[in-house]
Amino acid sequence: xxxxxxxxxxxxxxxxxxxxxxxxxxxxxxxxxxxxxxxxxxxxxxxxxxxxxxxxxxxxxxxxxxxxxxxxxxxxxxxxxxxxxxxxxxxxxxxxxxxxxxxxxxx
Amino acid sequence: xxxxxxxxxxxxxxxxxxxxxxxxxxxxxxxxxxxxxxxxxxxxxxxxxxxxxxxxxxxxxxxxxxxxxxxxxxxxxxxxxxxxxxxxxxxxxxxxxxxxxxxxxxxxxxxxxxxxxxx
Lengths: 107, 119
Hints:
The complex is a heterodimer. Chain A has strands spanning 4-5, 10-13, 19-25, 33-38, 44-49, 53-54, 62-67, 70-75, 84-90, 97-98, 102-106. By secondary structure, chain A is mainly β. In chain A, a hairpin with a 3-residue loop joins β5 and β6. In chain B, the strands form two sheets. In chain B, strands 2, 4, 5, 6, 9, 10 and 11 form a seven-stranded mixed sheet that branches. Chains A and B meet through β5 and β10 of A and β5, β9 and β10 of B.
């Protein structure tokens, strides 16, 4: 299985900050990478698909980039409702696998 | 509005089975795959597998073969997952997630069902 690694398990930032969350794959995944947001109440939402495409209804302050094995999610102008845990997920090969998550907190 | 409403929390004994449900509304149920994902307490997400509600075809993560069985009831637009021979390792929150038109993505998720295995 492809291993997805999010080396930063928790991150503290201030409102209005630009935040970048990183994710790396154990092998190249050809941009087949999604990002999800999980709120403290457990609610999960799709943010970004295919590395950089914004899912419908997701604010434009979220963006994604990357290639090969290294990918990132950027939140510009951090807002209170962005407090959550963020997961990357690859779909280059079955079974789909997720990163360990990065928990974003307000400083 | 797309909604996935999952069944309530379950407390089950070791060795037993449990069947949890995910009722879909707001879209054509047979037009989208349904996925299932496990989240053990405080841990990350594991993809269990998916089912095509149109024809019942399934694909399982090898890790969950023999543990999870995915089915659908088209008449009620409900997906089910049965978990077999439960152990403490199966205690987790289980989510259903609709397969997006974009391959590999799950665009709408249920609220999660907590399963606790305890004697």
